[in-house]
Each structure stands twice: as structure tokens, then as C-alpha cells.
Amino acid sequence: MVTQIDATDPGAERALAEFIAFVGEGVGVDAQAAKPQRLPWLHGTKWPGFAGGDPTLRFEDKSAYMRKGFPKSQLDAIHRQLTRTDYANSAALLLIAGYGGRINSVPSEATAVPQRDSVLKLQFLAFWNDPAEDDKHVGWVREFYQDVYSGSGGVPVPGRVTDGCFVNYADKDLSDPRHNKSGVPWHSLYYKGNYPRLQRVKATWDPRNVFRHAQSIEPAARP
């Protein structure tokens, strides 16, 4: 369990200790808590929760939806990248999550997320600590991703087998023609045909584009 609390509260450390004690009360074992860390706000909010509970880890993450099982070309690429001898990192992986069920009962146009007939969601991941190793680990994830989707311009273009990317795993490379050679824009990989409607909402509620980032929705031009 990872717990976060506002460190600017003068009683934060006491409240955290009391919470940990309360959670462990009556379970018959002593809590083994790591030493609390004070982090910048942005660092504390972006940590990958499944990475062993260490919010200081650096990471690179790319995503894909699968509508069908892996074709042989993709399986070959996955095996090739996961068995490379020129890259060593015990925290580098392909995470395969089952998808579907009630998620797929929602119409594609009902929400911002249009992927409603997928069977798997993938994450291409690497975690590390040393900032000096950024290029090495980011490079591996990029090469892995581009190898798996080499037949569609380096990204999982919506089609019979793949269905774009998950917007919550933001990936600026999708906006970069050096990495996305498919001709399909980043917003189609995330939102498919729902993007124009999202633009209209953006134009209504944030016409000056105050709330923005590298892949935020651009307001639709007013007539």
C-alpha cells in the first residue's frame, strides 16, 4: 500500500503514522513501512503505482489496444526485443492486461474513449533510477514499440487487429513524425472519430486554451 499526504500540513507526519497504525490494527502482524519521502507535487502525482511503490522511479510507457490476437510478425518482434543481449534492465517489460467485458458494452461514441471492442490493452514499459540512463531506456521502449508496429508506421493504427492508444498513458512521440510515420494523427490514435466533438466542448469551456499541454485538445475554430 502506498499512501500520500500533503506535506505542507503541520500534522502530516503524525497523521500518516496514525493511519498506518490504524490499517494494521488487529491483523496480527507488524506494519513494515518504508521511510516517508517528501517529493515535489508533480513528482508525487505522476508516479507509476504498480512499480514496486517507489515514487522516485523514472519510466517510459507506451500503449496499444488489441482487437485480435497477436499476428506472427508482432510475436516475432516481441520475442526479438525481450531477448536482446545488448540491453539489460530487470524492470523492462511488456504488460498485457485483459480487456473487454462491461467495458465493451459502452457505445464507442458515448465517451471520449472510443475503444469498446478490444480484448487486450498493452503497456511497453521500462523503469530506472539514474537520469544519466534516460536515453538508453527511452530508446529501448521506442525501438520495441516501433518494431512491433513496423507494419503500420510504428504505431498501433486502428484497424482489424489494433485499435490505437490509451489517452491516460500520454505519449508525446505519437505527435512526432520521426516516431509516428503512419500518417494517422495522435488524436485519432487516442479518440478516433470522437475528437471533433471534444474540440467543440473545448471551444465552449476553454476557448482561450488556458488548460493545455503537449497533447491537449485544441479548440475547434469558430465559424
From TrEMBL:
Residues 165-218 form the Berberine/berberine-like domain. It holds the Pfam family BBE. This is BBE domain-containing protein.
